C-alpha cells in the first residue's frame, strides 16, 4: 500500500497540473489502496466519489500544487469520515453515568472494561466495574483480576446481587453505585463467537433495564471486512452510541475503522492497542487516517526518536528534511551516523514517506562501509562537502588518496549522495512530513 501510494504521489508531483485523467488515475489507485486496507466496497465507492468531486472542484485551482492538493484532500476526507474531532464520553446529569459494552466474544470487551475503568479513575472518577457476562465460565474472575489491577471496585454476581441473571446483576449494580458513591457504572456483557439472537436479546434486556447513557460497541480491528456486518447487526439488535476499536497493535490497516464509522455513522471513541491496561487511548482520527494511507505514524516516530537522541538534533534533522535545501555531504554523513545510532528505532524511519527508500539505501551500507564513507567525506575540503558538484576527476583522485580508497568508491559515494539529495528535495517539494508542522508547503 505504502509503495503504491508513494508512486502515485510521486508521479503526480512531477506534473504541473492535475487533469481529469490524473484524478481518475489517482482515484483508481486510491480505490485499490483502500480495498487493500480492508475497507468495505460501498464505503470505498462513496469515498472515491467525494474525492473526485472535491478534486475536480474549485479548490484545485488554489495555491498548492496538484499533488499536494490530492494528498490534502484524501487525508482531510479520511479524517472527516473517521469523525473529525475526537468525541468524549457524555456524562449523565445525575450520577451515575451508565456505560454498557457490547460486542462479539473475543472482541476485547472485558479487557477494555478494565482499561476504561483505569483511565476514568485517572481522570478523577470513581467507576464501578460490573460483571454482567455470566456466559463465560471465568468471566467474573477475569474482571475481578482487572479491577484489582486497575484499583477499581467490581460488582460481581453474589447471592443478593442477582446470581445467574445478568439483567438482574446490571440493575442491582446501579443501586449499589448510588449508595457507594460511584459516579460511573461500566457494564461488561457477554458475547458470542458469531452474531446470535439470544445474545443480542440479552444485551437488549440489559440495555432496557439500566438505560445506559452510552452504549459502546467494541470491535476487533483485525476482523477487517466482517466488521461491517457485525456492526450493522449490533446497531439493529442493541443500538450503540460509540465504537471502540481493539487490537490496533496488530497489523490491521484500519480499514475496519473507516467502514464501521461510515456505515453506522457512530463515532469511534477509543482505541485499544495491547493486552496491558495502559495500552489504551482516546481515538485520534488523524492518526488513523495516516495509518489507512500508510503515511506513517509520524507522531510515534518523533516521540521514539526524541527518546533515543536529543531533541535538538531531532529538530535539526526534521528542518533539514523539511527544507530540502543545503543538504550537504556533512548532513548526509550525520544522517547515516544518526540512523546507525538509532539502531532498531532506525527501522521506524521506514514509517516516514520517502524514508523507506532512504532506509534501504542506508541498509546497504554496513558498519565497516560507514567508516569508509566517513573517511572519504572527511578527506574532502569544506567547499567540496558543501557543494559536491565541484568534485571533478582530479579532486576524486586526491580524495581517494587521502582516505585510502579507490576512485570508484569516491564516485559511488558522490552518486549516492546526489540520489539522497534529490529525494530530500522531492520530499520538501511535495507533501512534507505529515504531522510535523511547517514541513508541508
Ligand atoms: P471479550 O470476550 O470481548 O470480553 O474479550 P476479552 O477482553 O476477553 O479479550 C479477548 C482476548 O483478546 C484476550 O486474550 C485479550 O488479552 C486480548 N485483547 C483484548 N484487547 C486487546 C488488544 O487491544 N490488543 C491485543 N493484542 N490483544 C487484546
Ligand atoms: Mg468478556
From TrEMBL:
It comes from the Bacteria. Signal peptide: none annotated. It is found in: Cytoplasm. This is Signal recognition particle protein. Involved in targeting and insertion of nascent membrane proteins into the cytoplasmic membrane. Binds to the hydrophobic signal sequence of the ribosome-nascent chain (RNC) as it emerges from the ribosomes. The SRP-RNC complex is then targeted to the cytoplasmic membrane where it interacts with the SRP receptor FtsY. Composed of three domains: the N-terminal N domain, which is responsible for interactions with the ribosome, the central G domain, which binds GTP, and the C-terminal M domain, which binds the RNA and the signal sequence of the RNC. Part of the signal recognition particle protein translocation system, which is composed of SRP and FtsY. Belongs to the GTP-binding SRP family. SRP54 subfamily. InterPro entries: AAA+_ATPase, P-loop_NTPase, Signal_recog_part_SRP54_M_sf, Signal_recog_particl_SRP54_hlx, Signal_recog_particle_SRP54_M, SRP, SRP54, SRP54_GTPase_dom. Coiled coil: none annotated. Its EC number is 3.6.5.4. Residues 267-280 form the SRP54-type proteins GTP-binding domain. It comes from Actinomadura alba. Keywords: Cytoplasm, GTP-binding, Hydrolase, Nucleotide-binding, Ribonucleoprotein, RNA-binding, Signal recognition particle. GTP binds at residues 103-110, 188-192, 246-249. Transmembrane segments: none annotated. Its main location: cytoplasm. It catalyses: GTP + H2O = GDP + phosphate + H(+).
Amino acid at each position: 500500500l505504502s509503495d503504491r501510494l508513494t508512486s502515485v504521489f510521486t508521479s503526480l508531483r512531477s506534473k504541473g497540473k492535475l487533469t481529469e485523467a490524473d484524478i481518475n488515475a489517482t482515484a483508481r489507485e486510491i480505490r485499490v489502496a483502500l480495498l487493500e486496507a480492508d475497507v468495505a466496497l460501498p464505503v470505498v465507492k462513496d469515498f472515491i466519489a467525494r474525492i473526485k468531486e472535491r478534486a475536480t472542484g474549485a479548490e484545485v485551482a488554489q495555491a498548492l500544487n496538484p499533488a499536494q492538493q490530492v494528498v490534502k484532500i484524501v487525508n482531510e476526507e479520511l479524517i472527516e469520515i473517521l469523525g473529525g474531532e475526537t468525541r468524549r464520553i457524555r456524562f449523565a446529569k445525575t450520577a451515575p453515568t451508565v456505560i454498557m459494552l457490547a460486542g462479539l466474544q473475543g472482541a476485547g470487551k472485558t479487557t477494555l472494561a478494565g482499561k476504561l475503568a483505569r483511565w476514568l479513575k485517572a481522570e478523577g472518577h470513581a467507576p464501578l466495574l460490573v460483571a454482567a457476562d455470566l456466559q463465560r465460565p471465568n468471566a467474573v474472575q477475569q474482571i475481578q483480576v482487572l479491577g484489582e489491577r486497575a484499583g477499581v471496585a467490581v460488582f460481581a454476581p453474589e447471592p443478593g446481587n442477582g446470581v445467574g441473571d445478568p439483567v438482574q446483576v446490571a440493575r442491582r449494580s446501579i443501586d449499589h453505585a448510588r449508595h457507594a458513591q460511584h459516579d460511573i457504572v461500566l457494564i461488561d456483557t457477554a458475547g458470542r463467537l458469531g452474531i446470535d439472537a439470544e445474545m443480542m436479546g440479552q444485551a437488549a434486556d440489559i440495555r432496557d433495564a439500566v438505560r445506559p447513557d452510552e452504549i459502546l460497541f467494541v470491535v476487533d480491528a483485525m476482523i477487517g471486512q466482517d466488521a461491517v456486518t457485525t456492526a450493522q447487526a449490533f446497531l439493529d439488535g442493541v443500538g450503540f452510541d460509540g465504537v471502540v476499536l481493539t487490537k490496533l497493535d496488530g497489523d490491521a490497516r484500519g480499514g475496519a475503522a473507516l467502514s464501521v464509522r461510515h456505515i453506522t455513522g457512530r463515532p469511534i471513541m477509543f482505541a485499544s492497542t495491547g493486552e496491558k491496561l495502559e495500552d489504551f487511548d482516546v481515538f485520534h482520527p488523524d492518526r488513523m487516517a495516516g495509518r489507512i494511507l500508510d503515511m506513517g505514524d509520524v507522531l510515534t516516530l518523533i516521540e521514539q526518536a526524541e527518546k533515543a537522541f536529543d531533541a535538538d538534533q531531532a529538530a535539526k534533522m526534521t528542518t533539514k528534511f523539511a527544507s530540502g535545501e543545503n543538504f550537504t555531504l556533512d548532513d548526509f554523513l550525520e544522517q547515516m551516523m544518526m540512523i546507525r545510532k538509532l539502531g532498531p528505532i532506525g527501522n521506524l524511519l521506514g514509517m516516514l514517506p520517502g524514508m523507506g527508500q532512504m532506509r534501504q539505501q542506508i541498509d546497504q551500507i554496513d558498519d565497516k562501509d560507514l567508516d569508509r564513507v566517513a573517511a572519504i567525506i572527511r578527506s574532502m575540503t569544506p567547499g567540496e562537502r558543501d557543494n559536491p558538484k565541484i568534485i571533478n576527476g582530479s579532486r576524486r583522485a586526491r580524495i581517494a588518496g587521502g582516505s585510502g580508497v579507490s576512485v570508484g568508491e569516491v564516485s559511488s559515494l558522490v552518486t549516492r549522495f546526489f540520489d539522497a539529495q534529490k529525494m530530500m528535495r522531492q520530499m520538501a517539494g511535495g507533501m512534507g512530513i505529515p504531522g510535523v508542522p511547517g514541513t508541508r508547503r
